[in-house]
Design a protein that fits this description.
single chain; alpha/beta; rod-shaped
Length: 303
């Protein structure tokens, strides 16, 4: 195709193609103009423009009759196919934009999944058009994802010294630090355990997360010598260590909510009671749209 012919394509609009198809079916300028919500002179000008751009007459006009020329009859199925394809493409684009504007990207630390996901499911039932992209991340990666705009909302731990003003933290609840031991462990006879009782015990924690920092901070403040012997990636190895009497597991209470092992028991730590603040994290002053705002408000209200 020549460059001269290509230069004509932008001037031929889908609206003009629609005008031609409507007139070809109505065979009346008056009826077609009414169907298209146009004035008759405007429709006449549009048809003249498309005929000029295509380089030939599409209609044969007489005093009482309007018919398609052989060229018009040949062009009609092509024009109809173009319109159908354009409508389908437009619907696809609108649906894509609609899905994007109704999708909330939520990142969360794994331990909050048990409390967060039922809340999001209830919101989806309340607003069926709302969709979620969900990602579980370590807390540091979650904060960075929110900061970089990869996540619209994050549910994670607010670090004691965290925050440079660029992020907004909304407190959701406090998650206390607990221990998990065998049921026949001497500590299991009490409902709560002082931190001092952990001295000289082999402790096990997650390799990542805030518990190790809490141990160091609490041990230093209380002048306790706490020994972390094991650092594990997942919950089950930690529980296996406790189940076999190899370690006392120290972890957030959220992980112990679904502990259904008859050999193990979770106990609260006290003196001091150590908690981590679970917060809803977003970019300060950033309005991601009403769908994100609705999700934020729903989480704050229901979690």
């Amino acid at each position: 195709m020549s460059s001269e012919r290509l230069s004509l394509l932008p001037a031929l609009t889908l609206r003009q193609v629609q005008h031609f198809v409507a007139l070809a079916h109505a065979r009346s300028f008056t009826q077609a103009a009414q169907a298209l919500a146009l004035t008759q002179p405007a429709l006449t000008a549009s048809i003249r423009q498309i005929e000029f751009l295509l380089g030939g007459r599409l209609f044969a006009r007489s005093a009482h009759r309007l018919t398609l020329t052989p060229a018009g009859a040949a062009v009609l199925p092509l024009a109809e196919r173009l319109l159908n394809h354009a409508r389908g493409t437009f619907d696809d684009m609108a649906r894509l934009i609609g899905e994007r504007t109704q999708t909330v990207r939520v990142s969360f630390i794994p331990s909050v999944a048990g409390r967060l996901l039922p809340v999001l499911n209830a919101l989806r039932i309340e607003q069926p058009m709302l969709c979620f992209t969900l990602t579980d991340l370590p807390n540091s990666a979650l904060v960075q994802a929110v900061r970089d705009g990869v996540a619209d909302l994050g549910i994670g731990v607010r670090e004691p010294d965290g925050g440079d003003g660029s992020l907004r933290y909304q407190r959701l609840f406090d998650d206390e630090i607990v221990i998990v031991v065998r049921r026949d462990d001497p500590l299991a006879q009490a409902k709560t355990v002082p931190w001092a009782k952990l001295v000289d015990r082999d402790l096990a924690v997650f390799v990542r997360g805030s518990v190790s920092e809490s141990l160091q901070r609490t041990g230093g403040t209380e002048k306790l010598r706490l020994h972390v012997a094991y650092r594990m990636e997942y919950t089950e190895p930690l529980y296996a260590l406790a189940r076999n009497g190899l370690a006392t597991v120290v972890l957030p209470s959220l992980y112990a909510l679904h502990l259904h092992d008859p050999e193990l028991v979770a106990l609260r730590l006290e003196r001091p009671r150590v908690t981590r603040e679970i917060s809803l994290i977003s970019v300060a002053g950033d309005d991601r749209g009403p769908h994100v705002q609705a999700c934020r408000e729903w989480i704050v209200k229901h979690i």
